[in-house]
Specification:
This protein has 231 residues and is an alpha/beta fold. It is 45% helix and 19% strand. The protein has one domain: Rossmann fold (3-Layer(aba) Sandwich), CATH 3.40.50.150. Helix 3 runs antiparallel to helix 6, helix 4 packs parallel to helix 5 and helix 8 runs parallel beside helix 9.
Length: 231
């Protein structure tokens, strides 16, 4: 079975005191976020894929700073990232969250997020392969209209997600890609040769670094957050 790093441990149980200290003085969570995090950690399978709270707070800060209104969220899971973006958006903002399977979102996210109707109404969930949804948005003429995007889905398609998202972002828009250090494995040649997911992440990191369409930085934040700003 492929290695799946637990992003959320970066702030909750990482043995590095510097990581924990930084996360402590970064993370701010709404009560809804805390409730959904507890529900996911307590009952959902594969809870290790839950985004690190400090990464979500960092993304919220970007959205609020440039008053973003349109957000792409690739990889819904229980809705923890979609909730973060919705909380940061103004009343007329929208998060388009997409996943091939929304069962976890319907089971855990919807009952909790819907307690706050004003936040819940900002989230539009699409159950379909994200590449199909992104291609439909491009075909619909929505290129250059989104403010922010978060990619935390199947790593084999990270390159494809990134390329489509850059097309859809407006100039000055920002995309975060989660898990871009893959538990540190991207630095080990053996893993790059034997772990297809690790190799896909490494390839995407290199593509982003060399991409003339964006300015970027790979941060040792969470499980590695690659941040790219569209030119």
């Amino acid at each position: 079975m492929a290695f799946i790093p637990s992003s959320i441990k970066s702030c909750l149980s990482n043995p590095d005191p510097h990581v924990n200290y930084s996360a402590k003085f970064t993370t701010i969570q709404d009560p809804l976020q805390k409730e959904l995090q507890r529900a996911t950690l307590g009952k959902a399978k594969e809870f290790g894929t839950l985004g690190a709270p400090e990464v979500l707070t960092f993304g919220e800060n970007f959205i609020r700073a440039f008053k973003g209104k349109k957000v792409l969220d690739i990889g819904t899971y229980t809705g923890i990232s979609a909730l973060a973006w919705a909380l940061a958006l103004p009343d007329d903002g929208e998060v388009l969250t997409m996943d091939i399977d929304l069962n976890n979102y319907k089971k855990f996210g919807v009952p909790i997020i819907s307690k706050h109707p004003e936040t819940f109404k900002k989230i539009k969930a699409v159950e379909a392969p994200a590449l199909e949804t992104l291609d439909e948005l491009i075909a619909d003429g929505q290129s250059g209209t989104f403010d922010f995007a978060f990619i935390d889905a199947d790593k084999e398609n990270y390159e494809n997600y990134y390329n489509r998202v850059v097309t859809l972002l407006k100039s000055g828009g920002v995309v975060f890609l989660d898990n871009c250090l893959w538990g540190g494995r991207v630095t080990v040649e053996e893993h790059l040769e034997n772990d297809p997911l690790c190799a896909a992440i490494h390839k995407t990191n290199r593509i982003i670094f060399q991409d003339s369409r964006t300015y970027s930085a790979l941060l040792n934040f969470g499980d590695g957050t690659h941040v790219a700003f569209k030119v």
